[in-house]
Amino acid sequence: SKVQFVSLASLCIHYDIQPAGTAHGAMSDVHTLSLVLQRMTYDLLLSISILLQRSFIAPA
Question: Could you say which DSSP state residue 22 is in?
């Protein structure tokens, strides 16, 4: 499948998240990404443990 690049700003719009602080500030981006991760795992019906488990398996 084709990889699509998505910006943090577009993910915030998609998940209706208000970015924390200024864009490209290290801690504000980390905080915002943690909120995006919560929404993504909920949408994908994945627990954090399953997400971590799958992230270390190479695609076939």
Answer: S
Give the Cα separation of 47 and 26 in Å (integer): 26
Distance of alpha carbon 34 from its chain centroid, rounded?
7
Rounded CA-CA distance 39/33 in Å is 10
Q: What is the CA radius of gyration of the chain?
A: 13
**pLDDT one-digit tens code per residue, 4-39:** 778 998 899 999 999 888 777 889 999 999 999 999
Which structure tokens are listed for 38?
């919560």
pTM of the complete model: 0.73
* Contacts with 8 (C-beta within 8 Å, 6 or more apart), sequence order: 19, 23, 29, 32, 33, 36
